[in-house]
Structure prediction request, 262 residues.
Amino acid sequence: MTVSGTSGTLFQAGASFVHAAHPTTKLLYAVVTIACSLVVTRLPFLAALALSVCVVLYLAGVWRAFLRATARYLVLLTFFLLVIQGLFREGPSAVLLQIGPASLKTAGVLFAASMVLRIFTMVGAFLVVVLTTHPADLVQAIEQAGASPRVGYLLLATLQLSPEMVERARRIIDAQRSRGLRTDGSLVMRFRGLVPLVGPLFYGSLMSVEAKAMALTARGFFTQRRKTWVRTLAHQPWEPAARIALGAVFVGVVVLRVLGWA
Prediction:
């Protein structure tokens, strides 16, 4: 059973088999996928890994949320990597495109493509877990696996940090605009508009940390007694086979890399 609230998180509620999977299975998928992307070096294998992540995101029904969260950054990253690696990568290579004195080299473009595919795979595999698993379920699964509650809380706070900061900044901007603050116009005007936001954002973050610390203390977070759980995280019947398959895939990728085929 999952938690219905999604405030302050990237979690997207859904009824897919990915949502229903146990958080540890999804973590294993992310770890294996990221490890495989680091092991392989050939472009076709990296493209296959990236495609597999796209398929999982689509089947989970969270590909739109993934694009909203990453599209602009991936486009910028792709552009800068292609320009920097394609124009300035050293070594002999065929020229793909000549623009005046600058030449776009094939080796640099291929290296940039492999880097983009690798980063896309890593981010996508991680967001498969984040977008389909409520942080409370993820923390509970980690603690039930034997990790310290402090590790679980650190993970939960990390997952909630960015959405909370964005939401807090949005509220501060709306409040300042209602008081006549201009946050549009030229670059100088926008920079001046950011200055009044720093103080409320900083002090609001400190107050939030203090409130969370008091809540943790009141709820017995630091007690040494054994805890019980309100929710039950169930394993799906197909998950043992999926875990074995993930392990087999990783071993196969390592063997292919050792043989020089990947």
